[in-house]
């Protein structure tokens, strides 16, 4: 975490001519005995006046914001449609679940009825065998 602030301080100090190693400056602001191969320091340019003193053209900015707004509105409407469709699917799933439960109950009733009929059939067959054996 301390690496980034340290780097920022070092980079900002390199931009200041007094801390950079490009030239050696005397108190009067003239280079003194600059080593060979190192360019002499150039005086800093005067601070530039404000870029715009009048109204600023924001049409490009407004168009960009309008396009982003349209994209976000489209995304919201798409997500609303998805939520609506998911609600419909959920309602269908609930109806199908109720129908499945009814069918399961009918299946269990039929299995119970089949078991009763199978018992009756076995009793009839046992009675026929007993009657046939006599």
Question: What do you see in this structure?
Answer:
It is a single chain. With 134 residues, the chain is mostly helical. The chain contains two helices and no strands. It has helices at 3-15, 59-133. The termini are far apart. 0% of the residues are buried. Mean pLDDT is 79; it is low at 24-31.
Quick take:
With 134 residues, this protein is mainly α.
Using only C-alpha atoms, the radius of gyration works out to: 46 Å
Instruction: Compute the separation of the termini in Å.
Output: 103 Å
What's the story with the biggest beta sheet? none
Strand fraction band? under 5%
Kindly state the percentage of residues in helix.
55-70%
Topology (elements, then pairings):
Elements: H1 3-15, H2 59-133
Any descriptors?
elongated; 2 helices; 134 residues; mainly alpha
């Amino acid at each position: 975490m301390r690496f980034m602030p340290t780097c920022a301080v070092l980079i900002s100090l390199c931009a200041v001519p007094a801390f950079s190693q490009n030239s050696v400056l005397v108190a009067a602001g003239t280079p003194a005995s600059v080593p060979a191969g190192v360019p002499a320091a150039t005086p800093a340019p005067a601070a530039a006046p404000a870029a715009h003193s009048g109204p600023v053209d924001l049409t490009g900015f407004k168009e960009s914001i309008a396009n982003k707004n349209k994209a976000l509105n489209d995304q919201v409407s798409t997500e609303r449609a998805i939520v609506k469709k998911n609600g419909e699917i959920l309602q269908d799933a609930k109806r199908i679940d109720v129908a499945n439960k009814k069918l399961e109950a009918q299946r269990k009733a039929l299995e119970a009825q089949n078991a009763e009929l199978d018992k009756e059939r076995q009793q009839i067959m046992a009675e026929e065998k007993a009657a046939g054996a006599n």
